[in-house]
Design a protein that fits this description.
four-stranded mixed β-sheet; 14 strands; binds glutamic acid
């Protein structure tokens, strides 16, 4: 019996060859320098910031170079899988505006390099496994859990490296006839790689983010196929990224430790190695020290959090770009209105050690992003958010689009736009006073003004109130009312003789502001009053008067 015979016994159903697959999935014809990237999440139902962090990198690298960005589903681990997990992945990335050119979709898949679900690729993995067996580079291993546990104990006692290698690799040189018999009798086995590596030798790898790395070669006979025939991550990664012609593998730095295995497999199988970009962990400050973001402690790790709180998608992406590329912020300051897709994203500017995630910084970024949006755009976003998370608010907004858009227009468009809004869930509080249904005033009038003066301001102002098309006229009206009641006609007058007056024009307008908006701070009062309209202005002045009285 030779290796070829053994491979036939192990994989009798596999009739195609590696060459057939090479032909089926040829090199892609893409322009020079075009990059092929992918994300390869497992459908666990939990999508976290790290997934998005990597995906933005992949998407930018592919699309800035005229390449391909695709979605592969790594569903080999049934235990970690949840119902609807794939759907969640697709919907989340869609929400964040990341467009896949190929891969799994809601109703199947698209692209010429599929199937893109690993469970559907079993035959492909087995074909390459068969090839390795036929070349004497993979073998069946019958070691039981107990045997492996024994081995671990012995290694611990002797202070030797853990794992299945060298003299511990019991089935490495097992007689083929014996192996064949045990397989034919239905005994379970895993398929192991027969490593040719020697840890005395150093392997050199230039990572796109980490730079030059030297690591010992792998000498572990790692598992390629588990006893149910499903590949391990190591094997599936190498086969898939080769056949799908990925040129850059972007993944978390937790995979760096097993990189020697992957490079060895690429070499042994005669595949061209892809480039790798191992991204740094997302960290956050806790007191004085940095720590990894945790699922248990940090709600902001879950991508669903951003949706619920209503972080605008472009804000989150922008913020991730500031974390990913150290020069993004500078570019943004120089190009405040430019589409972020114009930024020249590069792995060269990526952080080698952990990136510090700071939610306050995200809020600041978001305020800037929202400040330069058109009012209609803000309206659409808020409407959309409220539709899912606040039905009552949604119907108020939907009732009168023009009214809401006018509100969002306040302070927008000029050189220094207002920066009031960071997240959509705070918008209701910000603009609620414009809606009678939401108006719940807190009448905190200026403390230096006596109650009777507040009352007379409210009364007199209401008496003479007219809508003005000019802000100066509006302001003059207010000053006139004030000066008749003993307030200074101008701020200058007040400054010169404060004792002669009950207050300055600012006090008068503050009284009106509190009455109309029910709060001490509001966007430009003149505009607010115009939007609220004559009748409701009068009604609010009356109501404030009654409540103070
Ligand atoms: N399924 C792996 C993960 O979710 C993919 C890693 C990779 O991108 O290769 O971590």
């Amino acid at each position: 019996m030779d290796y070829k015979d053994l491979s036939e016994i192990l994989f009798p159903d596999i009739t195609l060859t590696a060459d057939d697959y090479e032909k089926m999935y040829p090199e892609r014809s893409l322009p020079e320098g075009a990059k092929v990237t992918r994300i390869a999440p497992s459908p666990t139902g939990f999508m976290h910031l790290g997934n998005l962090f990597g995906a933005v990198t992949d998407e930018r690298l592919a699309h800035l170079s005229g390449g391909v960005f695709y979605l592969r589903i790594e569903d080999t681990d049934l235990k970690r899988q949840v119902e609807g997990g794939v759907e969640t992945i697709i919907k989340v990335f869609d929400k964040f505006g990341l467009k896949f050119d190929e891969g799994v979709t809601l109703d199947g898949e698209k692209g010429d390099y599929g199937p893109y679900r690993q469970r559907q690729r079993e035959k492909i993995y087995k074909t390459y496994a068969k090839k390795l067996v036929s070349e004497g580079l993979a073998y069946p291993c019958f070691a039981t859990e107990e045997e492996l546990e024994e081995m671990r104990k012995e290694q611990e006692a002797k202070k030797e490296n853990f794992g299945y290698y060298g003299k511990y690799a019991k089935y490495r040189e097992y007689p083929m006839e014996e192996a064949a018999k045990r397989v034919q009798s239905g005994e379970p086995y895993v398929l192991r790689f027969k490593s040719q590596g020697n840890p005395e030798n150093k392997l050199k790898h230039t990572d796109l983010i980490k730079g030059l790395i030297e690591m010992p070669e792998n000498n572990q006979d790692i598992v390629l196929l588990k006893s149910d025939g499903i590949p391990t991550y190591h094997f599936a990664h190498v086969i898939d990224d080769h056949l799908m012609r990925t040129t850059i593998v972007v993944r978390g730095e937790e995979w760096l430790a097993t990189l020697p295995i992957h490079l060895q497999l690429f070499d042994t199988l005669g595949f061209k190695r892809p480039k790798y970009a191992h991204t740094a962990q997302l960290m956050k400050m806790e007191g004085e020290s940095k720590r990894k973001l945790s699922k248990r402690k940090d709600p902001e790790l879950a991508l669903s959090y951003y949706d619920e709180v209503g972080y605008p998608v472009p804000s989150v992406i922008e913020y991730l770009l500031t974390l990913l590329n150290s020069n993004f912020e500078e570019w943004r300051i120089a190009n405040p209105k430019e589409d972020f897709n114009k930024f020249n994203f590069t792995t060269k500017k990526m952080s080698v050690s952990g990136s510090l995630f700071d939610i306050d910084k995200l809020r600041d970024v978001s305020k800037n992003v929202v400040a330069v949006m058109e009012a209609k755009e803000v309206y659409d976003y808020v409407l959309n958010w409220a539709k899912e998370y606040d039905e009552a608010f949604h119907s108020l907004l939907a009732r009168d689009e023009k009214y809401a858009t006018d509100i969002f227009s306040i302070g927008r468009g000029g050189k220094k736009p207002r920066k009031d809004i960071a997240v959509w869930s705070e918008v209701k509080d910000y603009m609620g006073f414009f809606y009678d249904e939401l108006f719940s005033p807190s009448y905190e009038f200026p403390e230096n003004i006596k109650k009777e003066d507040i009352l007379s301001v409210l009364e007199a102002y209401k008496e003479g109130y007219r809508e003005c098309d000019d802000m100066n006229d509006w302001f003059n009206d207010m000053c006139t009312v004030g000066s008749k009641l003993g307030f200074a006609p101008t701020t200058k007058d007040y400054k010169e003789n404060p004792d002669m007056y009950k207050g300055n024009p600012g006090d008068v307008s503050q009284v009106i502001r509190v009455a109309i908006t029910g709060r001490q701070n509001s966007p430009d009062l003149y505009t607010c009053m115009k939007i609220i309209g004559y009748d409701r202005v009068i009604a609010r002045l009356t109501r404030a008067y009654e409540e103070v009285k």
